[in-house]
Amino acid sequence: MAVFINQHTRVVVQGMTGREGRKHTQRMIMSGTRIVGGVTPGRGGESVLFEEDPVPVFGSVGEAVAATQADVSVVFVPPRFAKDAVVEAVESGIGLCVVITEGIPVRDALEFHAAARANGARIIGPNCPGLISPGKSNVGIIPAHISGQGRIGLVSKSGTLTYQMMYELRDHGFSTAVGIGGDPVVGTSHIDVLQAFEEDPETEVIVMIGEIGGDAEERAGAYIEANISKPVVGYVAGFTAPAGKTMGHAGAIITGSKGTAAAKKEALEAAGVRVGETPSQTAQLVRDAIAELRSQAWLAR
């Protein structure tokens, strides 16, 4: 098993013929992802060569789904076209739409999230790095070479910290890493991914990376306390951020004492989550949790 994607996932790339879409399609193919087509309006019938293999281009997502039975779309289109691209995908029967594009207006995001719910589809993002199940599938922009297969599940708001944590824990590896994005409105939450990891038999330990702003981490802590039986280790970026200043993501803004890293750390620790104050310290807490699980398994023999 894996979370949301696996070796059978069939992916179409919206915006594959653009610079970023072409570059990351090449990287996804090289990491084993089954890219079955690209979508660019007006360019249906063309193809793009990747590693000597042509990938067909379709004029619409509907045409791509009909021809390839694709079940996942990854979006690399400019912000002004993103809403229409996502709505087209979910209305064409795509079950998972991974929106890499940043700078999408909140109103547009609200509209395509509503369309996804109406069509029973899941959105990851926007403004996210995507997700990877090492050795199975890689949908988005996460570098495949920084870590291998293992039994850690990672959910993160931050793309950069996703990469760093995967590299820090490359000696153990990951079942799946999911970058949910840091915009004020995202399609898949920490809680959604936490529950998926709880149900995944290949995931033993969960790492949750948050950041200042909003109350997503506090809500996740309450959910962990009530519903998650596996060890959870957390990290909250932004311990030195000044109040009232946006830091990085559009959603990373704190007001007064609300949304601070210290407040989030306190809430998570109250729920039983071990929280590191640096990525390296967090990685060590994960190693400690894995060692404890191994020791318990040995004692139970």
UniProtKB/TrEMBL annotation:
InterPro entries xref list: Cit_synth/succinyl-CoA_lig_AS, Citrt_syn/SCS-alpha_CS, CoA-bd, CoA_lig_alpha, NAD(P)-bd_dom_sf, SUCC_ACL_C, Succinyl-CoA_synth-like
Entry keyword annotation includes Transferase: no
Binding-site residues for substrate, renumbered to this chain: 163
PROSITE patterns: SUCCINYL_COA_LIG_1, SUCCINYL_COA_LIG_2
Domain named CoA-binding: residues: 4-104
Catalytic activity field: succinate + ATP + CoA = succinyl-CoA + ADP + phosphate; GTP + succinate + CoA = succinyl-CoA + GDP + phosphate
GO biological process, one term: tricarboxylic acid cycle
SUPFAM superfamilies: NAD(P)-binding Rossmann-fold domains, Succinyl-CoA synthetase domains
UniProt: CoA binding residues: 17-20, 100-102
Pathway in which this enzyme or protein is active: Carbohydrate metabolism; tricarboxylic acid cycle; succinate from succinyl-CoA (ligase route): step 1/1
EC number per UniProt: 6.2.1.5
Active site feature: 249
GO MF entries: nucleotide binding; succinate-CoA ligase (ADP-forming) activity; succinate-CoA ligase (GDP-forming) activity
Keyword field: Ligase, Nucleotide-binding, Tricarboxylic acid cycle
A GO CC term assigned to this protein in UniProt: succinate-CoA ligase complex (ADP-forming)
Residue ranges the record marks as coiled coil: none
SMART domains for the chain: CoA_binding
PANTHER family with a match to the protein in the record: SUCCINATE--COA LIGASE [ADP_GDP-FORMING] SUBUNIT ALPHA, MITOCHONDRIAL, SUCCINYL-COA LIGASE SUBUNIT ALPHA
Similarity annotation: Belongs to the succinate/malate CoA ligase alpha subunit family.
Chain's role: Succinyl-CoA synthetase functions in the citric acid cycle (TCA), coupling the hydrolysis of succinyl-CoA to the synthesis of either ATP or GTP and thus represents the only step of substrate-level phosphorylation in the TCA. The alpha subunit of the enzyme binds the substrates coenzyme A and phosphate, while succinate binding and nucleotide specificity is provided by the beta subunit.
Subunit structure: Heterotetramer of two alpha and two beta subunits.
Protein name: Succinate--CoA ligase [ADP-forming] subunit alpha
